[in-house]
Amino acid sequence: MSLFLKVVPASDAIAIVRHLARTVDAEYIPLTEAVGRVLSKNIKADIDIPGYDRSVVDGFAVRAADTIGANDAIPAMLRSKGRVEMGGNIQRTSIDPGQCFYVPTGGVLPKGANAVVMLENAENVGDEILIKKPVAHRENVLLYNEDFSKGELVICRGKRLTSQDIGVLAAVGCIQVPVFLKPIIGVLSTGNELVSATEVPGSGQIRDSNSNMVGSFVQERGCHPKYFGIVKDNQESLYAILKKAVAECDAVLISGGSSKDDRDMVASLIGDLGEVLIHGIAIAPGKPTIIGCSDQKPIIGLPGHPASAFIVLFVIVRHLIDGMTGDASPQQEKVRARINQNVPSQKGREDYVRVFVEGEKATPLFGKSGLLNTLVRSNGVIQIPAESEGLEVGDLVEVWLW
Ligand code: AMP
Ligand code: MG
Questions:
Q1: Could you tell me the distance, in angstroms and rounded to a whole number, from the CA of residue 194 to the centre of ligand 2?
Q2: Which terminus of the chain is more exposed, N or C, with fewer CB under 10 A?
């Protein structure tokens, strides 16, 4: 067997993980716990909103025709019939021509009125109200069911709920919210040199960064990480833990041992458990990545170097996670900036260059693979397409912020 990886373009890898991504079951949860969760059903309005014509300003409810031609010098004079009370009975108020009602913001428009004059364009003179500016028909009025009509689609399935969404769900009476369950993602690291973050590494040892980073990445995107710890580079123990993780989780992310040297056994173990679909992606960093599955559950073999593993999470695995959580329109903040150094790039692979963006300026962070510092000193990444030979100082780039 060749010692080299058979690399595929990143777009192929993304297409495969999207294909592997299946949402798990759904559940109903209380509205107050639903922020950040992904809707599993379309939500429709249970009532007409608003349920009555209402004012959008503090002012005087009038017949628009009574205000035609009104101005400061010759105001229209209307007779005040009183005040509309917030939350009051809507049946009792009505106006005839030449009359008006004080109505606060959100108050019910009295019968007969069809517009509201803002308070600042009116003046009280005893029981008379001087209107100094005309209003058009329906001006400053929110009409009956103008916002949502009963049965109208309010929020689509697949939306990750924000606090604004929660406010609207409350308005349409959705107090038990249908959401997808959080997928359980198995996380494990392999390497004889790894010790837990709780230990001080001895000679030849390093702390396991990846378990914590990978688990946090999936948690941040709405999954439950399930940690299986550090496993030695040993066929039997690795096989046993990987099998257990597949059985107990919806997908498994394993880092280390993903390349093709004779210590790297992850690909062959995934093959023993199921199927290897991709071994090698034409991206840098992140080439030694494995995509496979067992029992229809995705298993991803991530490179050991934390910075490489993170790029694979950010560029490829995120699509798997979004698909599994049901998130139909995941947000990714992007900014445009100008690169302030030349960045060479090899043709035939996508390069992902960590950068620090400040205002208009993006500074690339170079360094040997294996450095941790670029992870914390960068605030985003730029992609250099496979066909490009690099960037020149001053080139406009799109930075994906992290
Ligand atoms: P490997 O892919 O197993 O050959 O590992 C590549 C490099 O990443 C080696 O220098 C490993 O020591 C390092 N590495 C592997 N796994 C981890 C981990 N979980 N945390 C930090 N570094 C790791
Ligand atoms: Mg290793």
A1: 9
A2: N
